[in-house]
Design a protein that fits this description.
This protein is an alpha+beta fold. Helix content is about 60%, strand content about 10%. It has a four-stranded antiparallel β-sheet, with helices on one face. The two termini are about 40 Å apart.
């Protein structure tokens, strides 16, 4: 039965006010202080990975439309960002983490509800002093507070902080998926253009050798050459035709992969002209290894998960202390429905509950141990992520340097093979050499042409890899983090 004594109401109301003031004042968290482990990498890039030139804009702040200059590649990247299913899934995972954070944050606030109750009961006569059965009614209308825990030790606040850090980590992971998608589309496009150029070279070679086979067939018909020489010319032709078929198959597979990556049907007609190597990308500002901490989405995500693991330790520690939960209501009560809101029907209930588990089979201790082990695992994951990021950038810088050397050497090789094929043909025409020498020279010339295209594409891909390794385009304005915290690096709970 609801109590209605005013003095008791005033006393308990003061106690509730004091408890509420303590809760709103906030209590110190029991989580370990957030600290970032020292960088497990060198302070500078390796000697063979030193940037030769620095661009005007850091990679994270350089948007992909500014870095990738090819118009068709820009259209492909824009379409992929709008339609790729992996990126769409990453965005939905961010929304899930946002909702989980909001659910956890709501536990900090009291839940108020309005209720109306009505009950009728019959009491047998042997349970009444009157000895006769009685039928009674009880009607109530109230505004109630249900089981609100006062966060005296910061447990709920720590759980909210852990949910916030998980949301921020998921958001950073989404930006990482975005960067990876941009790099994958760019590399897929470069591979497609490489195959277009290689197919064009193979077709030119096939056309030239078909004409040579026609000429040599006429010579064989008039007895000017042997059947062996005709067979050697035909071997050159069939080898070029087989290579052309292989390259067309590879191009078809690459086109299918690019369509799947972009997410919509595409018209990827072969391009006749080759790409301009020097006009594909803008210059990048590489910076120092320490700058990766603020630019790589995977490092940012690992750091947020490390902070979240500290918050979970705080929640596990707070579980060892007493908890206070408040339940109460204020309203009106009457034994008759028509007297529910009459004068003098005011009623209230206040029920604070103090609880402390005495024995739980070691559950709380095991939970604390689990949280601490997970924190140690988060530290190891953070350090591993930093090392992987350092290696990615160092590999991309080294590849850019040494592939540029290989392109230069391959161009010299192609020039030498062209002269060799020309001289071998002259020697054969003058009778100073057999056609086998021409066969070897032309086979090596075709191989040198194909290898030069492959190395050029590898050099361009290394620049794409460098852009992605530096967190290129990660600082996009579409991040959902701003809806929760001012910055992703220093979130405010």
């Amino acid at each position: 039965m609801l109590c209605s004594r005013p003095s008791f109401f005033v006393t308990l109301g003061r106690l509730a006010s004091c408890a509420l003031a303590v809760a709103l004042a906030g209590c110190a968290s029991m989580a370990p202080p957030d600290s970032t482990p020292p960088l497990p990498v060198a302070d500078a890039w390796p000697a063979d990975a030193t940037p030769t030139a620095e661009g005007p804009v850091p990679a994270p702040a350089l948007g992909w439309p500014d870095y990738f200059a090819d118009p068709q590649l820009q259209r492909l990247i824009g379409t992929a960002l709008a339609n790729n299913r992996d990126l769409r899934l990453a965005v939905l995972q961010v929304e899930q983490a946002r909702a989980a954070y909001r659910i956890q944050r709501a536990d900090q606030f009291p839940g108020l509800g309005v209720g109306v109750e009505g009950a009728r009961s019959r009491v047998p006569g042997d349970l009444n002093v009157s000895g006769r059965p009685q039928v009674g009614s009880d009607y109530e209308a109230y505004v109630g507070l249900s089981n609100w825990e006062l966060d005296l030790w910061g447990r709920i606040r720590s759980l909210k902080q852990a949910a916030l850090q998980e949301f921020l980590a998921t958001s950073a992971a989404r930006r990482g998926v975005r960067v990876s998608l941009i790099a994958a589309v760019a590399n897929g496009y470069l591979s497609l253009r490489e195959l277009d150029e290689r197919v064009a070279l193979a077709e030119q070679t096939i056309a030239t050798r078909q004409e040579s086979f026609r000429i040599f067939s006429r010579r064989y018909e008039v007895g000017a050459i042997s059947r062996l020489e005709l067979a050697q010319v035909r071997t050159l032709l069939t080898q070029a035709q087989a290579l052309g078929a292989q390259l067309r198959q590879a191009r078809a597979f690459q086109a299918h992969a690019l369509v799947s990556l972009v997410g919509v049907p595409l018209d990827l007609a072969p391009r006749v002209t080759g790409f301009d190597d020097g006009a594909m990308f803008a210059e990048l500002q590489v910076g120092l290894p320490s700058q990766l901490l603020a630019s790589r989405p995977d490092i940012i995500a690992a750091e947020h998960r490390l902070r979240g693991s500290n918050a979970n330790i705080g929640a596990a520690r707070a579980a060892f202390f007493p908890s206070i939960a408040l339940t109460g209501s204020w309203g009106s009560a009457s034994s008759e429905l028509d007297g529910l809101f009459d004068s003098g029907s005011r009623a209230w209930r206040f029920l604070p509950v103090l609880s402390l588990p005495i024995f739980d089979g070691g559950r709380r201790s095991a939970n604390l141990d689990l949280a601490q082990v997970r924190r140690d695992a988060a530290v190891a994951d953070y350090e591993r992520t930093v090392q992987a990021a350092f290696r990615d950038v160092a590999d991309a810088l080294s590849a850019r340097q040494w592939l540029a050397e290989q392109v230069r050497f391959q161009r010299d090789t192609l020039d030498a093979q062209s002269d060799r094929a020309r001289l071998a043909k002259l020697r054969y025409d003058s009778g100073a050499a057999t056609y086998l020498e021409v066969l070897d020279a032309q086979r090596d010339l075709l191989s040198a042409q194909q290898q030069l295209v492959q190395v050029r594409r590898a050099l361009l891909s290394s620049q794409v890899s460098l852009y992605a390794a530096l967190g290129g385009g990660a600082a996009d304005p579409g991040s959902p983090v701003s809806a929760i915290a001012p910055t992703s690096r220093a979130p405010q709970p």
